[in-house]
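Request: When convenient, would you put together a sequence paired with its structure tokens?
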Amino acid sequence: MNRIKNNQHRISIALGLVLAFSIGLINPFSLNDDAARAVAVAVLMITWWITEAIPMPAVALVPLVSNPILKIGSIEEVSTAYSNPVIFLFMGGFMLGLAIEKWNLHKRIALHIVKRTGTSGNRIILGFIIATAFLSMWLSNTATAMMMFPIAISVIAVMKDHQQPNTSIFNFSMVLMLVIAYAANFGGMATIIGTPPNVAFVGFIEKIWL
């Protein structure tokens, strides 16, 4: 098993290098030399990221090595991008998300809100909307949805066990799953760190207007 995994690891690394070299050599987009090399580095990073050839933090550091070697930019120019406030804002949001997940704070918040809103079907859905939107304001909307789904599934299981005769749990289950997805998106738009595109947009606006 380990041998197969090691072989896959080597193939992934080689695949990234071959694709990057091919893109840089063929230049299918008819770009200038610097841009073609930059695209090749991007292809290398994307391939290694998708195949998990090397850890993602290491993939993120590839430009620090490749760009000066390929004369795309100096080490000073490349390293400046890593000190951008937007990067640290990303980092802070991810750290906050990891801390919340580690200590199960999301479960406590969600269950507390559901407890406050009530136990009827409509009130449970309202509670999940509020809880998901609130959490998504401080975490990635995708991460929030993934955190809330297991809680919702547990609630659905409990509702099935206590289901009244001549009632259907299907509509409740479907609505609950959908509102988590929608609430995560709406909550994510409320703050800068609510979703990664918000952070990227702020960085773009600061660069254009300031």
